[in-house]
Specification:
mainly alpha, globular, 249 residues
């Protein structure tokens, strides 16, 4: 136990696992959106420009985070720090873009039989969690163990779109009720959080506080989001919000 305590949270000792975590996020995004790409391109009318901009900003952000992880892995901390504030700037852009894109997409679906404005709960949960993790990541940037976990959690928080498409278009298993809805959208995030906790337990014999905080925030948000998606009152509020927004791109 003395050896573990003396080397607890050494930033160099678990760098490679964070290359794996970000690789898992990339795999989910590429696989999920790869399955959905043909449908997206074939939409009539075509997707509005803001959806393309939102997608480009997301890919740019994920690329910047990946490069930062790789710069640390090869020991180039100077380049890592140089990219850091650019990543923060793109993050600040992603939040309003993500919310606007979600509202535009809902306005486009108003006349569709599967119109589900209550789904905006998930979009709000994503952006809140992403903003919290990014802000905490900046605050704890001088604490490498916490910083890198918070940055990975930022990516995990907005990875559900990829994982959900894998389930809905690949697995195609429909499970009714609250649990079934939660599972199809959040199964991938659940597995990553469990893996991060297991890694810390195996490597350090305790889970880092940033991972515990991340799991608490994400799972609480997921439970609230799932309940809201089955709430008629929430749906009515979101219908009014979408109508008030009105802009379809």
């Amino acid at each position: 136990m003395q050896r573990v305590a003396a080397t607890a949270w050494s930033p160099a000792s678990d760098r490679k696992i964070y290359v794996i975590w970000i690789g898992v996020v990339w795999a989910a995004i590429l696989a999920g959106f790869g399955m959905d790409f043909a449908r997206y391109l074939g939409e009539a009318p075509p997707p509005p420009f803001i959806l393309h901009v939102h997608a480009a900003a997301f890919v740019l952000w994920l690329t910047l985070v990946t490069l930062q992880i790789l710069w640390v892995e090869i020991g180039n901390l100077r380049r890592h720090k140089q990219l850091g504030w650019l990543t923060v700037a793109v993050s600040a852009l992603m939040v309003p873009l993500g919310l606007a894109a979600a509202l535009v997409d809902q306005v486009r679906q108003v006349t569709h039989p599967d119109y589900a404005p209550q789904f905006l709960a998930l979009e709000f949960e994503e952006m809140i969690a992403f903003s919290v993790f990014m802000t905490a990541g900046v605050i704890f940037r001088r604490n490498p163990a916490a910083h890198k976990r918070l940055m990975i959690l930022s990516a995990v928080a907005i990875s559900d779109a990829g994982f959900a498409r894998i389930w809905l278009m690949g697995v195609k298993a429909e499970i009714p009720g609250l649990f079934g809805w939660w599972l199809q959208f959040f199964w991938g995030i659940f597995l990553i959080l469990v893996a991060m906790g297991v890694w810390d337990l195996w490597h350090r014999r305790r889970i880092h506080p940033a991972v515990l905080f991340g799991a608490a925030l994400l799972w609480t948000g997921e439970i609230i989001t799932t309940i809201l998606n089955f709430s008629p009152a929430w749906r009515d509020v979101m219908v009014r919000l979408v109508n008030a927004w009105g802009y379809a791109g």
